[in-house]
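HUMAN: Would you supply a protein with fold tokens?

ASSISTANT:
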Amino acid sequence: RKMVQVAGFVRNAYNSGKVGLTMSPRTLLSWARKMQRYEPAMALQVAFGSKLNEDDRAAVVEFYTKVFG
């Protein structure tokens, strides 16, 4: 549920023009698969964060922190 919440925040930010890349269902599944090997934050970075510029990455980290604490 938390991963879907983060993806929702990313999608809303994308729709409002605050983030330049949205999180697709395929990326969400990639994140889930990578969580078998990494901690959730690192798995997110590997699956999605590496595709983002610095500003977008900071926004996604903020969303992650809001949901995961």
In short: The chain has a mean pLDDT of 96. The first helix runs from residue 2 to 15.
